[in-house]
Each structure stands twice: as C-alpha cells, then as structure tokens.
Design brief:
It contains five helices and five strands; from the N terminus they run βαβαβαβαβα. The protein is an alpha/beta fold and 169 residues long. The chain has a single domain, classed as Rossmann fold. The longest helix is centred in the C-terminal third of the chain and has 14 residues.
C-alpha cells in the first residue's frame, strides 16, 4: 500500500539527476518517493566543490563542456517514464547532464524535465535539454526556485505538479 502523498505508477519510472549543492537531489528524492520510482544520481569525476567549483562549473556550463562521469548502470529500456533533473548553471545545464544525455539514445522515450534555480533562466535550460534528447516525447517541464530556503514549499509544489500530470495512473 502506498504511503500518504505517494503516487503509485502502473509504469516503471526513473529519476535521473545531477546535484552540486543538494537542491536538485532534494527534489529528485521527493519525486522518486512520491512516484515509487528508481533514483539514479549522476556523479561528475571533476570536483565542483567550493567557490572555485562553482566558478568553473558555471564556465564549463556556459562553454557547453562535457565531463567524465563516475560509473553508472542506467538501462533506459527498463523504464516507461524518465524524469531528468539538474541545477540551472548560468542559464545552462551542468556538464554531467550534458555528457549523460549525449551518451544515450532517446528515441521513443517519455521524458519529464525538472530544474532547480536561485533566480531565472529555466526556459533556456529546458531548451538545451530538449536539444539533447532527440526523438523523445517531452511530457512536462518544471522548475523549482530557492529549494534550500523553503523545502516545505518545494514539497507542496512537487505534490501539486505531480497531481496535475497525466502519468497514466
């Protein structure tokens, strides 16, 4: 039996994400919990910690650089619906997400994008994400502002967003 506030899909769902500071991780974990979905964090081999990690992360993002990822075992064909989440870095996507999306075939996949941000630029992030998943069906997109400052509000946004999606329940 699903816990209160949890959505049980008849389909198999996956939540893939990259998070530097924990905001995107928070949203991804909330989504996976509510959807009873598998969770797949991507890990960049390049350190993105501290002020220099922040600076070089933004630079690499603006320059559309790729990176090396730690090993992962994600088989997309095992899933009917795939959520992909990342932070908004200078109105762009982090190298870890860019690298991962370029390594996979996205034809006929159903994708839901989400991003976390401190101010604005989500539409550009989503445009960049869409360009990297050619052939996929984009089901929906959602951004979350200032997650760290108000996790309760983020939880409520996630709950109402999922309730409004047609996920084949």
């Amino acid at each position: 039996m699903a816990e209160e506030g949890q959505i049980k899909l008849f389909k198999k769902a996956l939540v893939i994400f990259y998070s530097r500071s924990g905001n995107t991780r928070f949203v991804a974990e909330e989504l996976a919990n509510r959807l009873s979905a598998d969770l797949a964090p991507l890990r960049d081999k390049k350190s993105r910690k501290g002020i220099w990690g922040y600076f070089w992360g933004g630079f690499d993002s603006l320059m559309q650089h790729k990176t090396q990822l730690e090993d992962y075992n994600i088989e997309l064909n095992n899933y009917d619906l795939i959520f992909i989440g990342c932070p908004n870095w200078a109105a762009n996507i982090p190298p870890a997400i860019r690298t991962f999306l370029n390594q996979k075939y996205w034809g006929n996949k159903k994708i839901v994008f989400f991003c976390t941000q401190e101010s604005m630029g989500a539409e550009r992030v989503f445009n960049n994400l869409r360009g990297l998943v050619k052939g996929a069906e984009i089901v929906n997109e959602k951004y979350f502002n200032k997650v760290k400052e108000n996790k309760d509000a983020a939880r409520e946004q996630i709950k109402s967003w999922l309730a409004g999606l047609d996920l084949g329940l």
